[in-house]
Amino acid sequence: MPVLVMKFGGTSVANLDRIRRAAKRVGVEVAKGYDVIVIVSAMAGETNKLVGYVEEISPLFDAREYDAVVSSGENVTAGLMALTLQEMGVPARSWQGWQVPVRTTDAHAAARIEEIPTDNINTKFAEGMRVAVVAGFQGIGPDGRITTLGRGGSDTTAVAFAAAFGAERCDIYTDVDGVYTTDPRICEKARKLDRIAFEEMLELASLGAKVLQTRSVEMAMRYHVKLRVLSSFEEQSDEAGTLVCDEEDVMESKPVAGVAYSRDEAKLTLLSVADRPGIAATIFTALSDAGVNVDMIVQNISEEGRTDMTFSCPVGEVARAEAALSEIKEKGALNYSELVVDRDVAKVSVVGIGMRSQSGVAAKMFKVLSDEGINIKVITTSEIKISVLIDRKYMELAVQALHDAFELDKAA
Amino acid sequence: MPVLVMKFGGTSVANLDRIRRAAKRVGVEVAKGYDVIVIVSAMAGETNKLVGYVEEISPLFDAREYDAVVSSGENVTAGLMALTLQEMGVPARSWQGWQVPVRTTDAHAAARIEEIPTDNINTKFAEGMRVAVVAGFQGIGPDGRITTLGRGGSDTTAVAFAAAFGAERCDIYTDVDGVYTTDPRICEKARKLDRIAFEEMLELASLGAKVLQTRSVEMAMRYHVKLRVLSSFEEQSDEAGTLVCDEEDVMESKPVAGVAYSRDEAKLTLLSVADRPGIAATIFTALSDAGVNVDMIVQNISEEGRTDMTFSCPVGEVARAEAALSEIKEKGALNYSELVVDRDVAKVSVVGIGMRSQSGVAAKMFKVLSDEGINIKVITTSEIKISVLIDRKYMELAVQALHDAFELDKAA
User: Fold this and answer.
1) Is A76 in contact with A43 (CB distance < 8 Å)?
2) Can you tell me the distance from the alpha carbon of B406 to that of B412, in angstroms, rounded to the nearest whole number?
3) C-alpha A316, offset from chain centre
4) Which helix (H) or strand (E) holds A166?
């Protein structure tokens, strides 16, 4: 029988009523003839509670013990979901990560899945079991200890199972009903997309559209897993939600699929840096070692052997960046005249695979912003994305103007 | 290094403060030079919450899923305890049942421990780890699924580890400070015992003194594990609590060690039963099949081929007993004139290994009750216990009078 993977996030299994509702959705797919693998998160709030315990005990905790503790929430949900399905008459059983086993690297609290043997679960499917309920977010490391995949890791678990079992589709049930052209809280004309390409979804996810964990999208793209995002709080048809799929399966032919933003950015500029080979490596290695997540990097034209270096990072990491840069300056590894910090910027991006083949997207974006009187502070581009840093106070205006200009409220 | 097992029940690990307090106790024993195996229960209330979920979903639940769900509470505490010890500078790590592995039978929700390999933990002790924190109450069955040992099973886990590792002692930390001569809520003269023999503890436990799970005492007796019950809420010396040990290690030489009671008993009498071989088997097989826990059984003298059969069971099981007996009567498998039920009785027992060698204990007990005007309805005796059924309203009086008469308030 064809296999379907269905993943339910924490709000979709927050209590027994919601688990029952999710189980009914599973029952519908079983009735259609699918063997279903259900991936569950912990009940909403449970993981935060457990993480809170660990952090209260030990700010610099042993990640192996952290994993042993925080993985327990998913185990509870898996058992409860299996029981609920059984009560509905659907043959089901639960698996914890180590029972499958979901083999991972030993990077505790941020492990990567290396292998999912299908024998155990397929044997049970062959014996008539219809639903395997698997605790998401967890696995077992080479040393036999429990690992977790990092927050949001259940999405990755779901995609990995879909890939391993050759599932027809991987449905991610969540508390939103799909992927939107932009954040509906900022732009009321935001429209739900029926389909979006993996590459676009990746850019949107990394830009703060927190619908899917980035790694799960990367994995789905690599293994050509059709990924559907849909709401567990609405009655669903086969066409509900948003399908994240290969580029060639996306019907829309607009240059831009969506507008993303990231509100709390800071722009840092090192003035008059000695421009010699290796200086960029010195700067960004020091920042990386200090745990600063550098995003955009721009190097201005060099004059007389000196250059200006601009980069952006989250506002919360500015202090760490300043300290790291002072330190390497004091050590003599870096020479600059001044560090200028602007804490009041935001990033706005337009994303679309269509811009590969259609020129003029960047020009149009800059003109739209200019027409609104919005000054662009930094620009970076990739094949399918153009991002700008602007004053934070213009962020909502920029998103709305770009959404209008690229006609994202209208289907293609 | 010598090994010590320390078990902390749910109230002793109910929150992070209490886990810290327990960890300090562990640290004291580590400082004395012990390698310590800590067995933890779930935080107070957690297991009840999880059992509640399971029962709400499915009154006739799949015990394998029940085990997968309810075992998670102990996993959380084990990780938190290991982290707390590490934070105190004590090298520690957690083990879940399947990681040791604690091999059990496949009787889910009521499994028995079959084997505890010591290699994994001993290897870590040899490498310098000082504390192995093990999730109690759980193991892994022959099919690789998680099992639990039944409520209170963490005591059994603790004793099993003490036996497997040849521990010097097994300390059970709980919310009472030891084993008393009787229930202090009923008899204010109740006195904490310094030592008690396994056999006496077993009789007291099965009679309702809920300090230790009966199976843990049986196992400790079989493997000669010195078991100490003590409070996790008081400063402790080496002599604190009550040591449950082999008979020859008990110093006290009184005939009676304690007075136990069981409040909610019922007495059922089948009048004029046809007295033929196999009739007792017919009756008690039917009752057992109906889930009635029969305790005392007395058969009165037979007259003209007919006899009266009296037995006791918990009041809550009377309805099931009546139904089962009616059914076999209707089937013609049993013939009796009447079933007389007395729902207002209680059982009071005196327990002591000393009564093996000292005569007159029964006579003294009956005289004490008679002097108080308490009528004895049924008597049963074993080598180290004499039990009587009496009207429930006299129960407290009987316990107090016996406690006085056998001078249990005074040390031997």
Assistant:
1) yes
2) 11
3) 20
4) none
Q: List the structure tokens of B158.
A: 């603790």
User: Residue A295 pLDDT more than 60?
Assistant: yes
Interface residue B58 vs chain A (CB under 8 A): yes
pTM of the full structure:
0.83
Instruction: Answer whether B86 touches A (CB < 8 Å).
Output: yes
Residue of B nearest to A47 (CA): B76
The pLDDT, as a whole number, for residue B210 is 67
Instruction: Please say whether the beta carbons of B75 and A68 come within 8 A.
Output: yes
Quick check: B80 contacting A, CB < 8 Å? yes
At residue A35, the pLDDT reads 98
| Identity at A275, one-letter amino acid code | D
- Both tokens assigned to B119: 């290699």
Paired residues of B139 in beta bridges: B147
Q: Which of B19, B46, B57, B146 is the best mutation test for A, with the most CBs of A within 10 A?
A: B57
Domains and CATH numbers, chain B: 3-175 (3.40.1160.10), 259-405 (3.30.2130.10)
Q: Measuring CA to CA, which residue among A37, A35, A47, A38 is closest to residue A11?
A: A47
B335 versus A233: the higher-pLDDT residue is B335
* Measured distance CA(A156)–CA(A148) in Å, rounded: 11
Model confidence at B300: pLDDT above 80: no
Rg (CA), chain B: 24
Predicted confidence (pLDDT) per residue in B9-39, tens digit: 999 999 999 999 999 999 999 999 999 999 9
> How many angstroms separate the CA atoms of A160 and B331, rounded?
60
A80 touches chain B (CB under 8 A): yes
- Are the beta carbons of A191 and A180 closer than 8 angstroms? yes
Q: Do B79 and A69 touch (CB under 8 A)?
A: yes
Three-state SS at A350? strand
Strand partners, A319: none
Q: Write phi, then psi, for A281 (nearest 5 degrees).
A: -60, -45
